[in-house]
Recover the amino acids of this structure.
């Protein structure tokens, strides 16, 4: 599995569960998100993009940095910030949501 959810950071919004194409994310009695069947996770990152608190971490394979590298997002009204953490260093990529799909 490439996705892990930190329940301490989870806002209990349920957005990740709504977008998971495999229906693999559920909420416990406190509405905190968790992955029901970790081995079945496709690693599509749909939940990662919906998580506003950075509670979902996407762990990267060896071809993308591996060895403990991971990604998470922070969402703002106009921007989506992707953070890639590798070898203790954080790299930030910012996407302007209003401009990202213009051709």
């Amino acid at each position: 599995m490439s996705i892990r959810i930190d329940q301490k950071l989870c806002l209990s919004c349920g957005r990740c569960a709504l977008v998971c194409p495999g229906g693999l994310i559920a909420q416990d009695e406190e509405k905190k998100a968790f992955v029901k069947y970790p081995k079945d996770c496709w690693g599509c990152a749909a939940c990662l993009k919906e998580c506003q608190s950075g509670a979902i971490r996407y762990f990267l394979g060896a071809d993308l940095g591996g060895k403990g590298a991971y990604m998470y997002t922070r969402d703002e009204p106009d921007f989506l910030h992707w953070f890639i953490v590798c070898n203790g260093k954080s790299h930030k990529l910012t996407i302007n949501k209003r401009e990202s799909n213009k051709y």
Summary: Helices lie at 15-19, 46-50.
